[in-house]
Amino acid sequence: MNKLNITAIAAAISLAFSAGALAAQGLSKEEYEAGKDKIAAVYKSAKADCDALSANAKDVCMAEAKGKQKVAKAELEARNKPGDKTRSAVSIAKAEADYAVAKEKCDDLAVNDKKVCVKEAKAAEARAKADARAQMKASDASKPAKEKSTAAASKKSTPGEYVDDAVITTKVKAAVLEEPSLKSAEINVETSKGRVQLSGFVRSRADINKAVEVAKGVNGVKSVKNDMIVKGQQ
């Protein structure tokens, strides 16, 4: 299978589950099942074509096929149950699919270039996910007060609190990944009520200071706690 065939398959899936279809007010059981069957059939065909390839070309092809399948499923759910959550899930599925393909393509590069390539792809995924969650939060904020108060009554936590923390975590991770001096660092990020905790291993004290500085610069961060460790000093 050549690249044109891969592109044609991707286009076919995208057309079958286009953004315009997301406006539909739910699907009948028959339509939903037919959609699932179509996704399965398209993926089966794409997989068969990928099997004709070898080495990394096959890996890239399979990543594309699986990614399109994942996005198509998310779009089907958004058509079946229209709402902010399912629309956000489509954006997140697309971000994850793009990352999976980009990561496989990075395998064709030399070791150092591959590491940079993967980090850049991961940062792009993190940004896309953060945007999707931020849009969902903004949409929720625009809902009528009565609707929001009803939703709040069903939760013990502050409305939007979980989403806020998830968005902040994603944005901090992306900011850290995009900082050149922290490319080789292994930094984990957790957020609770706007308070960010950084952990993991770095090369030097300077890296710790830079990571804290970067995290503090992210909108929404109230404070930053450092639990990072300099390699060789634990």
Report on this model:
The chain is mainly alpha-helical. It is built from 8 helices and 3 strands. Strands 1-2-3 form a 3-stranded mixed sheet. Helix 2 packs antiparallel against helix 3. The longest helix is centred in the middle third of the chain and has 31 residues, at 111-141. It is flat and about 60 Å long. The model is unreliable at 1-24 and 152-157 (pLDDT under 50).
In short:
The protein has 234 residues and is mainly α. It is built from 8 helices and 3 strands, in the order αααααααββαβ. Helix 5 runs antiparallel to helix 7.
Please write the string of helix (H) and strand (E) elements. HHHHHHHEEHE
- Spatial separation of the terminal alpha carbons: 51 Å
**Subunit arrangement of the protein:** single chain
The class by helix and strand makeup works out as mainly alpha
- In what range is the share of β-strand residues? 5-15%
Number of strands: 3
**How confident is the prediction overall: mean pLDDT?**
80
Q: Number of helical runs?
A: 8
Biggest sheet record: 3 strands, mixed
What characteristic shape results from the CA principal axes?
flat
Amount of helix: 55-70%
* Rounded Rg: 21 Å
List the helices and strands and how they pair.
Layout lengths: L2 H14 L12 H22 L4 H26 L3 H23 L4 H31 L3 H9 L7 H18 L7 E7 L2 E8 L2 H12 L6 E8 L4
Parallel strand pairs: 2-3
Antiparallel strand pairs: 1-2
